[in-house]
TrEMBL record, chain A:
Keyword match Nucleotide-binding: yes
The protein's name in its UniProt record: ABC transporter
Entry annotated with the keyword Kinase: no
UniProt xrefs under SUPFAM superfamilies: P-loop containing nucleoside triphosphate hydrolases
Gene3D superfamilies to which the protein is assigned, alphabetical: P-loop containing nucleotide triphosphate hydrolases (3.40.50.300)
GO molecular function, one term: ATP binding
ABC transporter domain segment(s): 4-235
Pfam families: ABC_tran
Keywords, in A-Z order: ATP-binding, Nucleotide-binding, Transport
TM stretches of this protein: none
Automatic annotation (TrEMBL), chain B:
Record field: transmembrane: 21-42, 62-85, 105-131, 143-165, 172-193, 228-250
Protein localization: Cell inner membrane; Membrane
Family annotation (InterPro entries): ABC-2_transport_permease, ABC2_TM, ABC2_TM_bact-type, ABC_2_transport
Primary subcellular site in the record, as a coarse category: membrane
GO terms of molecular function: ABC-type transporter activity
Recorded GO CC terms: ATP-binding cassette (ABC) transporter complex
Keyword line: Cell membrane, Membrane, Transmembrane, Transmembrane helix, Transport
Protein name: Transport permease protein
Length: 311, 258
């Protein structure tokens, strides 16, 4: 069963700006799906329509088979939303925020308090339960929004840039938590600007640009299309700065060399040639995240072909 | 959403609303007590003694129902207007919009909050009046209760409509300043409209607040400038009209959905 089915979705804002130009994609139940796109591509509008914060102009949206137009209340019950901006009452306490949210979904107050303890504990916020939300740090506020979205135990969790502005340690703990939720059966849709995050967490991916889906495939299949990667090698200082046969080579200084490697060529040739010149490799890393390269290429390609529509 | 889950949602909104105005009680409950005390001292005790009787009772007794009603009107209106607009401003209104709470439940929850604050303030102002009036009449308690419920409901709905359209905090103070206060002062709080020339009596009849003040006064004193049946009909009519207006605004997502 599909957790989400979108077809022909269009959104024209007042003033005529066409944010969505007929997008189609679906997300399978249990999936961890990344919805990527540059700023202003239509990601948040899409999420806004799914969660009924934005009125669509045309098209259809179904969540676990419930239609947005005819079964709105059932559809809403399936979704937990973690928006991009903090949207809770800053003067309410952490516990009030999550318990009230459960109440809006009809969760009895006693059960809501039990779930509040469970999710606030899991997200490391139980100690802060009686603090007003405005006193929390940015990372805590993000976790509060995740806890709030889980209180009615949704089947589909939508996170709009949940790790924006969060330090790396906390980001990794949130990744672990989201992976755990997904393993427990919750379908997750994630938008993010950290492509490493999408690559690490998500099985399937949709790329949206200028209101159109320009790619919708599995992460594995997408990464398999990457034909070339650039590696940065840190080497021991050497007077020699040879060009490596069969590889585009760029020395940025006496310690650092960038090498373009075709997917099928392998790295052995690079190491063999450097060894032959007596150059010792100390460490090596990708110049860019693999998904990042693909993402940039796809968006550029879409725009050149005019499908992206951006000027 | 079935009946029991709707009731849970309604209770949640109501508790949230009551918690809000009780948390800031210094801003919400104390000012009416102070303002009304000043009205009682100045208009009732100092000026009132020189005025003598009005409509067959002392001036102080005459103004008590009007002043309670004035508090009910301003508090129910401002409670809902400021709470709903703050929720829009901080975007926490989205908490309700993404959840399966129906529009009537949202409206009822906010009205419940406005009514609760209006009732508490009405009790406070009534208690204050005991310091100035020896004998507070209560001729028709049913009409006192009915009028206060219908009036607080109506102005809660009015505050909600105002908040839906408001884009800035200034927008939620314009109506109370330029509409509600003049209409309340000209609605017979401090005088009987029978004292006015015929023309101005006719004009006053177009003021809906006149019917609320007089409905309430009828409940206290057993007499009013307008028939009680007309006062009740006007109140019910305005309540229905404002409910339909607010329901349509929220259903369409005016001011809250893009």
């Amino acid at each position: 069963m599909n957790a989400l089915e979108i077809s022909g979705l269009e959104k024209v804002y007042k003033g005529g700006f066409k944010a969505l130009k007929g997008i189609d994609f679906s997300v399978k139940e249990g999936d961890f799906f990344a919805l990527l796109g540059p700023n202003g591509a239509g990601k948040s509008t899409t999420i806004g329509v799914i969660s009924s914060l934005v009125n669509k102009t045309a098209g259809s949206v179904k969540v676990f088979g419930y239609d947005l137009d005819t079964q709105l209340m059932e559809l809403k019950r399936q979704i937990g939303l973690v928006p991009q901006e903090f949207n809770f009452n800053q003067f309410e306490t952490v516990r009030q925020i999550v318990v009230n949210q459960a109440g809006y979904y009809g969760v009895p107050r006693e059960l809501a308090h039990q779930r509040a303890e469970k999710y606030l504990t899991q997200l490391g916020l139980w100690e802060k339960r009686d603090e007003p939300a405005r006193s929390l740090s940015g990372g805590m506020k993000r976790r509060l929004m995740i806890a709030r979205a889980l209180l009615h135990e949704p089947r589909l969790l939508i996170l709009d840039e949940p790790t924006a502005g969060v330090d790396i340690e906390l980001r990794r703990s949130m990744w672990d938590y989201l992976t755990r939720l997904n393993k427990e059966g919750i379908t997750i849709i994630l938008t993010t600007h950290y492509l490493e995050e999408a690559e690490m967490l998500c099985r399937n991916i949709g790329i949206i640009d200028a209101g159109q889906i320009i790619e919708n495939t599995s992460m594995k299949r997408l990464l398999a299309t990457l034909s070339q990667e650039t590696f940065i090698l840190d080497v021991e200082a050497s007077d020699k700065q040879p060009s490596l046969e069969g590889f585009a080579t760029r020395w940025t200084d006496e310690h650092t060399v960038e090498v373009d490697v075709d997917k099928n060529a392998g790295l052995n040739g690079v190491f063999e040639q450097l060894s032959a010149h007596g150059i010792k490799v100390l460490s090596m890393r990708n110049k860019a995240n693999r998904l990042e390269e693909l993402f940039v290429n796809l968006v550029e390609k879409g725009r050149q072909q005019g499908t992206g529509g951006a000027a | 959403m079935n009946q029991s889950t709707s009731l849970i949602a309604l209770k949640t909104i109501w508790i949230k609303e009551c918690t809000r105005f009780l948390r800031i009680w210094v801003q919400t409950l104390v000012p009416p007590a102070i303002t009304m005390t000043l009205y009682f001292v100045i208009f009732g005790s100092i000026v009132g003694e020189r005025i003598g009787q009005m409509s067959g009772v002392t001036y102080m007794e005459f103004i008590v129902p009007g002043l309670i009603m004035m508090s009910v009107i301003t508090n129910s209106y401002s409670n809902v207007a400021s709470s709903f607009f703050s929720a829009k401003f901080q975007r926490n209104i989205e908490e309700m919009l993404v959840s399966p709470v129906s529009t009537p439940v949202i409206i009822a929850g906010y009205i419940g909050g406005g009514m609760a604050r209006a009732m508490i303030v009405a009790v406070i102002v009534t208690a204050v009046s005991f310091f100035f009036v020896d004998n507070v009449h209560l001729e028709h308690p049913l009409y006192v209760v009915l009028t206060v419920i219908l009036t607080s409901t109506l102005f809660s709905l009015g505050g909600l409509a105002n908040a839906v359209f408001a884009k800035t905090f200034d927008d939620i103070s314009i109506v109370p300043t330029f509409v509600l206060t003049p209409l309340t002062y000209l609605g017979g709080v401090f005088y009987s409209v029978s004292l006015l020339p015929d023309f101005w009596q006719g004009v006053s009849m177009a003021n809906p607040i006149l019917y609320m003040v007089n409905g309430f006064r009828y409940g206290f004193l057993g007499q009013a400038d307008v028939p009680i049946g007309v006062a009740m009909a006007v109140l019910i009519g305005f309540n229905i009209a404002f409910f339909v207006l607010v329901y349509r605004l929220l259903s369409k997502g005016v001011g809250i959905r893009s």
